[in-house]
Task: inverse folding
């Protein structure tokens, strides 16, 4: 089944670009739909003045920006993975479909954030955090599948391994913040900010892990050599 | 009129890719709009708590996932057909337009599913089932038209014949489930799950039919030879 | 200013494809947004049964299909024009922007059609007819501008002249139906159906005009020759 | 970090086109979503006649057209910048992300314009003006970053400098109108119209600045020469 399933390199490049076009469409729509929830506010009450209305709903604006950044970071990461992909198979469509499901879903926890953050902070945060956890899981699945099935460019295999590692770490990280959010909300928010910064520049982040790991290895080798001598 | 209408191979490849870009846009938007119905819930009642509200509307979440999977499977199938197409004509635009009409319509039965499944299960299921029936009809039309008008790559004609066959089967299958849904809802749901799985990997499914058919032929030939001897 | 403004042939092909990508996006979204108005119905009243609710709003379904066909026909026509374009300039962006404005606006008269057709038939029809008139105007502007500024492929100039002519006819035609709609609604609807069919296959329609015109010319020449003899 | 980050020219062209595809998607959706606010009106009150309803909400139509023109002009400008870009880096994604954030946000001040212009003219205008100010800031950031990091085609560097200058002027200009809007609304509107016209043809506008500047330089040189003589 494998030979039927997997495309060759030239066809593969065309194929991957098509999956990316569809995915880009989904990302672009999800990121733009967020504004609808903000516009919704204007139709709710008309008695108070505009400035008062907007001040009452300042959370909706913050939620909009958080939702926007979340999907933008997802797109940057998704896009980077597809730079290295040069083959596809039938299952990749489904792994990518999982990523798209989470992306499409993101406006929902964002809307919850906008409307319920002050009333039910813990539940809201847990809901939004669960979305990040699912996103990490989806991103890891995409990376791990591409890596294990040799769908990526041969010369980028080593770097891509650290991509995979990066998303594996993020699964554990986002899982932990879920529980930290139950104890301390400010701490959870700080940890999410760190997550944002780390994944805002995914290539550099992966390279840093690579350098750290190889650095540790070199140090270990040095230690071994010392012992040997 | 035919020579005017049909494009040559190189131009055709460009043309088909343009139709696909437009179609991909429609698919991407239809799949992302599904979340709007889920967000709608948050604006309905604010007295009960968030968790209670979401639990009451758990059907909307299931409907969202079903709608998402439906459109994703449609995209995968649509995309696969366009891998083999290398010519277009004026009528193909309209056959493809029929597919897009059904895709664009899909969020409507999904919204019905979300809101009426518990109250009017049979009607809801019939409505959603009718959508699948129309989709099979549209997919078959696209395949049959491309096959009959020689719009596909010459070397893929045999495989594509089984694509056509696959969608012809699905017309009958989805038509039957429409009536089964009136008798037994669980059975209908199981049959839809089988449909989902079969069309989740359309290439493999077509190849299986091909192997089965050719296997039967070989057995028939063997039988004939036996009789002959 | 002209030399700065106009791009050369190879760059032009890239440029036109970019304008088309953006336009395709707008068309794809406008066509998919139509379903939102249909979904809206489900949230209005919940007391009556689903079937009764849908039967009451059967006009919304018809409006959805009409809106869908309108935008699809627009896309087919827009797409065909861009097949022949191989240069762009700054003003083309704005002429194309006019087309997109009308396309983006189309869901609005469609929504009016869905909600007001039974109550205020004449006004609704006039509104929808005005949209068609504007669309003809926009399509003619695009064609005429491309033709007059030599932005189209050299070898297609003759055919393209008939494209231009076709849209010029449609301006007059849609303008006339606007008034016919005030006298007889069924006649207006029939005339719109003819419009739909004619523009559903724009290339064939243009060629028919070309053949008719050249046929008349040949006949005229024959007549002249007869007289001469 | 720089060598890792920046792509080479051929890869860069592919990369920039991908960012543009995603951006085009966002622009296309933002521009099409504007109509939803207009459709919303139809669902508000049904007692009065259609024409009366539309006349009451004529501002919503004007707001729709203003919003449409705003995003279209943004797209034309964004698109023009990407014509000259042939390299990307990780930070460009974020600078471009800032542009997209403002574009995505635009339907919100447009909706405010539609609903509050008659009630709270000054606040509405300030809000919409602030959006233009942010847009100028975003456009300038994109230009300045691309220029300073040498991400643009070598032979267009001089022209691009005037692009950068153009957006720097627009920051000051939009900032000033913000305050003028507090004093005189008609004057502010006239100044916005001039802004629209200037940025509707961004290439020509930049070239005019270039000619003016070089003209002044030449005149200065002439003056110097005169003095010298």
Result:
């Amino acid at each position: 089944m494998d030979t039927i399933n997997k495309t060759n390199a030239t066809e593969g490049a065309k194929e991957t670009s098509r999956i990316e076009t569809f995915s880009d469409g989904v990302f672009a729509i999800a990121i733009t739909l967020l504004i609808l929830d903000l516009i919704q506010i204007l139709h709710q009450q008309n008695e108070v003045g505009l400035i008062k209305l907007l001040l009452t709903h300042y959370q909706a604006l913050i939620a909009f920006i958080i939702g926007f950044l979340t999907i933008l970071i997802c797109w940057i990461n998704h896009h980077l993975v597809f730079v290295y992909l040069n083959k596809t198979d039938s299952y990749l469509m489904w792994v990518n479909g999982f990523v798209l499901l989470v992306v499409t879903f993101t406006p929902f926890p964002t809307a919850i954030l906008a409307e319920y953050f002050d009333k039910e902070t813990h539940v809201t945060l847990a809901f939004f955090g669960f979305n990040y956890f699912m996103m990490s899981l989806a991103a890891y699945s995409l990376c791990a599948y591409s890596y294990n099935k040799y769908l990526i460019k041969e010369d980028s295999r080593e770097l891509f391994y650290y991509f995979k590692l990066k998303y594996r770490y993020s699964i554990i990280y986002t899982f932990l913040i879920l529980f930290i959010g139950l104890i301390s909300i400010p701490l959870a928010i700080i940890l999410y900010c760190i997550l944002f910064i780390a994944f805002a520049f995914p290539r550099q982040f992966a390279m840093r892990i690579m350098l750290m790991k190889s650095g540790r290895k070199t140090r270990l080798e040095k230690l071994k050599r010392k012992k040997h001598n």
Q: What stands out?
A: Chain B touches chain D at residues 29 (CB under 8 Å). Confidence is low (pLDDT under 50) at residues 1-9 of chain B. Chain B has ten helices and no strands. Chain B has one domain: 2-228.
